[in-house]
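Hi support team,

I've been running sequence recovery on a batch of backbones for a student project. Most finish fine, but this one hangs at about 90% for roughly twenty minutes before it completes. I'm not sure whether the input is malformed or the queue is just slow. I've pasted the structure tokens below so you can try to reproduce it. Let me know if you need the job ID as well.

Thanks,
M.K.
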């Protein structure tokens, strides 16, 4: 059966054509955006490791996201079985983890919300944002500070390519 394409109008990217099967369903939405349940992940090689989570039904709603392991190698998400069950997954290795990045005017203060990761079943495109209540994580972990800890100074130029 052939795939069906959909054109999504966005404020940030203009018209984006996507395969309907690429739409990620967040049945409960995201925190603060519970009525927005359909998203697409827009990845641009020029902006790696960052991507955008674009709302399908709201042209102006897009989040910058990143795989937290790129900055925080010891990052671990521990959730209860009922939360995992909502993702309809049988193999936990098929879950992708993303976190929302905040990019203020002062780019050195760019931070990631490690307390509210986005879990996506990549086989069924079902997503869920979880809140890690009993964890050491907060909503504001500074990415550039973490890069400075782990990389030589010459490699911390990544901030120049942040897709705002």
């Amino acid at each position: 059966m052939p795939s069906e394409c959909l054109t999504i109008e966005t404020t940030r990217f203009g018209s984006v054509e996507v395969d309907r099967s690429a739409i990620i369903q967040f049945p409960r939405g995201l925190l603060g955006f519970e009525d927005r349940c359909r998203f697409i992940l827009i990845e641009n090689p020029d902006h790696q490791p960052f991507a955008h989570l674009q709302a399908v039904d709201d042209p102006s709603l897009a989040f910058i996201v990143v795989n937290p392991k790129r900055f925080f190698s010891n990052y671990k998400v521990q959730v209860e079985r009922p939360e995992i069950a909502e993702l309809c997954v049988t193999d936990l290795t098929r879950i992708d983890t993303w976190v929302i990045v905040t990019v203020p005017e002062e780019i050195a203060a760019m931070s990631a919300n490690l307390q509210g990761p986005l879990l996506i079943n990549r086989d069924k495109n079902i997503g869920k944002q979880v809140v890690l209540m009993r964890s050491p994580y907060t909503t504001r972990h500074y990415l550039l500070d973490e890069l400075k800890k782990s990389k030589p100074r010459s490699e911390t130029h990544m901030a120049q390519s942040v897709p705002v």
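--
Follow-up from support: It reproduced on our side and the slowdown came from queue contention, not your input. The helical segments are 81-85, 143-150. No action needed from you.
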